[in-house]
Structure formats: structure tokens, C-alpha cells
Amino acid sequence: MSAMARLRGRRRAAAKEAAREPEPFAIEEEVSHLTRIGSEPCPRTRTRKRGVSAFDMLASRESGRAGPGGGGFCSADRAYAAGKHLPAEGPWCVEDMDSEAYVSQFSSDGSLLVAGFRGSRIRIYDVDKGWKVHKNISCRSMRWTVSDIALSPDQRYLAYSSLSPIVHIVNVQSAGRESDANVNEIHEGLEFCDDDEYSFGIFSVKFSKDGRDVVVGNNDSSIYVYDLGANKVSVRIRAHAADVNTVTFADESGNVLYSGSDDNLCKVWDRRCLVREKPSGVLSGHLDGITCIDSRGDGRYLISNCKDQTIKLWDIRKMSATTKGRPPRLYDWDYRWMAFPTNARYYKHPNDQSLATYRGHSVLRTLIRCYFSPMHSTGQRYIYTGSSDDTVYIYDVVTGAVVKKLSWHRSIIRDCTWHPYRPTLVSSSWDGYVARWEASGDKEDPSMLSFDEQRTSPYHQTYGLSFAM
């Protein structure tokens, strides 16, 4: 039998396999238990088997039964109460821009929101002052769009990247509201490539936890580490066999990195023992390129979003030393302009190491991002993600169910961010809107978005002279 005939046979078998109904959602008991501990009432509060109401919790507290010491709510109680009030009302407008919104991020204390747009514009909003613009940044040396943003741990500096080998850093706490690159403020450029004949684009940028390094993933299939003190690239890892779309840190130590690539793999790297560019481990299970990775922050669990239309949950203790061979590509498509093949939707990787798989959202045209919900307000009970079907999806980690869909936008939601303490979620869409969703809010507020303001592109709206200025 020829190689072509064998390939056709494998594709027919895969199509038959994929045509069946999806397997019931399953998750390993350990991570399910840990999630419940952090997001469900303490035993002292949970006096009945039925769901616990806010009244039950308050009554337990007043009677001295709530909390580990009997005097108040424990963190799980607070997360349980707050997790019952998801940010699903609205949306209200934070920004109405004449270009697509690509990225957004709350600061670690929730006082600032940063949003980046196609072209050369980043805006920083003061959350505590009515979402007013804190700093309006005109970027330098942009190629196509702001691809990623990162705030330093002390929240003094913002790093931004585009499809070029340069990351720029700007002081976000300086006095001026306007920051025009190298005109009225210095935007320091970190050169990640010193070869004028060769260039690459950066997809992901992060500060190390001590603020001394900047780490990037790029379409050079590599991870670069830039030492800010020495003002040079200190480490280059040829990390993957294709574009590195995402990098992030495993925990507060900053020693362990996770990366995801178009080679379908998530990899784990320990900065203390990088030998011959070999990862500490590899996680297999996705069938297409990884678009985003988010860490649970405990150095053990992470989630990844993928072009195979799934989010997967991983435990790095199950990682392999090497890959067991890349599975054959059983469908031909290009996620930038084609719909995902129906017959491939439920195909399973033969060596899937993931703990759970979440389905419902769609990942098309761009590197859509996903995250764990905040620890303080939800106990990380949820996973949330943007989607190419114009919706924010919120999944229950333990059950895999879609608990909320936030629908108003009329274009791709590439990024979204959940306030670390408040029941507020911000969505960033290619329709040009940055919108906020709340657990409750003033529906008479003029910033609340109406259906007649919807559009599929920011260019479909005619702006007045005041906006153009």
C-alpha cells in the first residue's frame, strides 16, 4: 500500500471517529477537589446539602460558626459569595476607538486598565476615577498592531510589542497624560535582534516577577530573555518547531516558564537549568497551534487555548521528557480565513496528557486568549475566554459547563480581562469597542451600550470632527 493510500485511510478513520458524539466532560479528582476547596463554603458554613445562600452564610457568621476561627468568612466563603455574582450585566463603554482592540489587561491591584489597538495606540484608564484616560500613548515603530502589553510588577512601566523585534518600555506614572514616543516622553527600545537583514515579530511579552527581565515569544520559533540591568539579550532558546505564540510564568518565583506554539505543544522551561535548549517537559494533547497559555499561579496547573477550538487544563507533573511523535495532520485548513472542519471537532489526540477539555467557544483569525478567573473573588472557579463568534465564554472549571455567555459585540473578541477584586470584566473587540461588564450597574448610565450602536468594524461608523481630533 502506498504512503498516500495509508494517509487517506487514516483520514477516513479519523473522520469516522470525529463524527461520533463528544465524550462526557471529565476532570481529574485532585484538581476538582482543590478548586472546590477554594471556591465553595467552609464546612462550618455549609450546614445543609443544598446550595448555601448569602443569608445562610451571614447567619453562620453571626452565630460564630463561619470561618476557621469561628469569627468571620474564610477566603473560600468570600469567593463562593462573589462567584455567585458574575459580571454578566451590561456592557458599558470604556472606549470607542476607530481601530480594532487587540489586547487589554488590569493592573495587579485593579487600579488601572491598559488597552492596545491596531496601529499605534495604547490607552491606560484610571478605574477608580470613572475610567478616565490616565495616559494616552502613541507607540513607536509599530508593525500592524500592538501585539501584547505587560505592566512591570511595581506598575511603573509598560512594555509593548508589535510584529517587530523591538519591545518598547514607557513610564506610565510620569506626569503627562500624553505620551508621544520620543517626542515628549522617552519610549526605550529593547532590541531583540541585532541583524539588520533578519527580523521577526513578537507575539507575547512578560516581565519577570522581580522586574529585572523581559521575556518574549516570537515567530522565530524562539523565547528570548532580555536583561534590563545589562541592557542586552541574555538568553535565547530555540524553543519550538514553529511560531511561539505565548509565554508566561508558572508562579511568583519567576524561575519556571510555560510556552505554547503552532507546533501544537506546550512546553515547560526552568531558567535555572537550561541545558542545550532542552525543556523540562512537554505537554501533548492539542491538535493545532496554541494561541494562549495562562498559569493558575501555583507552579502546577495551566490552561491553553488552541486553534483546535478547545481549552485544555494541564498538570505539569504529567509532562513528558520528549514528544512521542507528532500525529499526522488529518485535516487541511487555515484558521485565518476558513471555518474549522466539522469532522475534526471531536477528534482526540492519541497521546493526550491534559486533565480536562473545554468546548464551546471558537478560535479563528487571531490569537484569542483565555484565563483563570481571579483568586480573590472567585477562588479561580472559572475559565474565561474571548471568541471569534463575538462572545465572552465563562466555563466552570469543575463541571466544564458554560455558565455565562457575554454577548453584545458584533466582531471578534480577541482579549478580555477580569478585575482582580471586583465583579467587573472588560472585553476588547475588533469592532473597536472596549466594554465593561458588571454584576450590577446603572442602566440609566449614558455609557451603557445599546443595540443601535453595534457594528462589525470601527470603520463602519462615521466620526465627528471632535473624535478625529
From TrEMBL:
<comment type="similarity">
    <text>Belongs to the WD repeat LEC14B family.</text>
</comment>
<dbReference type="GO" id="GO:0043161">
    <property type="term" value="P:proteasome-mediated ubiquitin-dependent protein catabolic process"/>
</dbReference>
<feature type="repeat" description="WD">
    <location>
        <begin position="237"/>
        <end position="270"/>
    </location>
</feature>
<dbReference type="InterPro" id="IPR015943">
    <property type="entry name" value="WD40/YVTN_repeat-like_dom_sf"/>
</dbReference>
<feature type="repeat" description="WD">
    <location>
        <begin position="283"/>
        <end position="324"/>
    </location>
</feature>
<feature type="region of interest" description="Disordered">
    <location>
        <begin position="1"/>
        <end position="26"/>
    </location>
</feature>
<feature type="compositionally biased region" description="Basic and acidic residues">
    <location>
        <begin position="14"/>
        <end position="23"/>
    </location>
</feature>
<keyword id="KW-0853">WD repeat</keyword>
<dbReference type="InterPro" id="IPR001680">
    <property type="entry name" value="WD40_rpt"/>
</dbReference>
<dbReference type="InterPro" id="IPR051859">
    <property type="entry name" value="DCAF"/>
</dbReference>
<keyword id="KW-0677">Repeat</keyword>
<protein>
    <recommendedName>
        <fullName>LEC14B homolog</fullName>
    </recommendedName>
</protein>
<feature type="repeat" description="WD">
    <location>
        <begin position="406"/>
        <end position="447"/>
    </location>
</feature>
<dbReference type="GO" id="GO:0080008">
    <property type="term" value="C:Cul4-RING E3 ubiquitin ligase complex"/>
</dbReference>
<dbReference type="InterPro" id="IPR036322">
    <property type="entry name" value="WD40_repeat_dom_sf"/>
</dbReference>
<dbReference type="Pfam" id="PF00400">
    <property type="entry name" value="WD40"/>
</dbReference>
<dbReference type="InterPro" id="IPR020472">
    <property type="entry name" value="WD40_PAC1"/>
</dbReference>
